[in-house]
Input
Amino acid sequence: MTALLREWHRFTPLERFGRWFVYLSIVAALVWAMRSVEVIPEFLIDAPEQMMDLLVRMWPPDLGYYRMGVHEALVETLHIATLGTLFSFILAIPLALLAARNICRSRTLNSFAQLLLVTSRSVNSLVWALIFVAVFGPGAAAGTFAIAFRSIGFVGKLLAEALEEISPGPLEALSATGAPRSSVILKGAWPQIEPAFWGVALFRWDINIRESAVLGLVGAGGIGVVLDDAINFFQWDRVATILFAILIIVIIAEIVVTRLRARLI
Amino acid sequence: MSSFPIRSRAFPPNWPMRLIGVLFVAYTLYAMSRLDLTWARFSIGMGEASRFLARMWPPNFTRWELLAEGLIESVQIALLSSALGIILALPLGLMAARNLAPKPLTMLTRGFIAFCRSLHYVIVAILFVKAIGFGALAGIAALTIASVGFIAKLFAEAIEEVSMKQVEAIRATGAGPAAVILYGILPQVASRFLGFSLYQLDSNLRNSTLVGIVGAGGIGGTLFAAFKRFDYDFVAAILMTIIAMIFLAEVVSGRIRAALR
Output
């Protein structure tokens, strides 16, 4: 009879302790952050008022300004994003081939390529932009290279993962016919990763359009330069126009990407 | 009249793809001329790059207190903005799911989420810096908006994929809407929600090292100041620290994700 009265638990005591410990450490981290982060109470109290003030100054947007300088900067932003994506692929494809363990058999080369990809991903595009502004001087060239170098890690990682998932059958069949290594990759691996490739390209292009809009804040060309100028001169109605322009281009890019992806994949 | 068709080639030329390739090359050349990207500029840049790298080495860690202070503030911004973003994304995700909420509500919430996602967090940070002043608060607010946009969107998509059988079973017991959500839906999406949250914490950690560039707190301010003063050896130290932190965070979150599975 006593056996039937046993109490059942979903977790073992150790698991319960572990869960409790995780909850406690999350709460402790948040409390620590909240207590020691530097927040000026006066700023917090009049934040809603200040936000309203900002919005009032932004309205109505100075739409006439679009033709005076925003349009050109917007086109430049699009060029930076597209060209940056293209350049990133030139460097990312060889790195992805080196990083894929089933294509490149050398462990050392795999790790080396992975290291380069991780480095590229860890440095944010704005930091890349700072570096390239120091190298090329202010302008769209720095922005293009910043976008390209930031994208290499992302594109290379996803392409390497796609390459590692392909079925080895076609590759072996091609090798058995005596095909050279380049043909094995071009006719055996490429058709298998083609959908993933276009998906990654479109995905990254979409992200790059968003990112290239802010590169100008550090002087790397595009619409960010115009935005930075307008903010520094407190021309909030112009800022509103520029933000609208960015918003619209981002939404258009997303729609285009979704349409193209539905057709390609 | 040939009775046998000509033997087809194993790999016929793919004309549409070739055309796309040509268009890409043409575009690249056109865009490069528009952006003033020339070989001369590139080679000058290479020379500058070697000078730049030479000045970065060796990294200068003598001002490590400034570095640690900035880094700690960045971590705090990341933690608080992730927590706020997760808390706000929970109801918004439920409100945006088409299989739960009425249509007008989902449209409204989806519009709001799309708006949160469409502006880059640095731009949002600029606006918050202008509105509520310099400091960590602006960074927290900006990254919270970005987190809400990301988590709420994926959370709503996850909810839309749940199996309605369990929901109906709970409903059949006479449970109210709160109980249906709590016992019918959340258990199905909890692990994915946790995954999104973890991912967002990871990316907030990256982004919080950056919002300082526009004055929204964290190590970005220190980095930008060092860049402006051409203290490239200190820049190298900051960049190495940031990369090390991000790498550590990636390893830790990878472990947690593996443990959750």
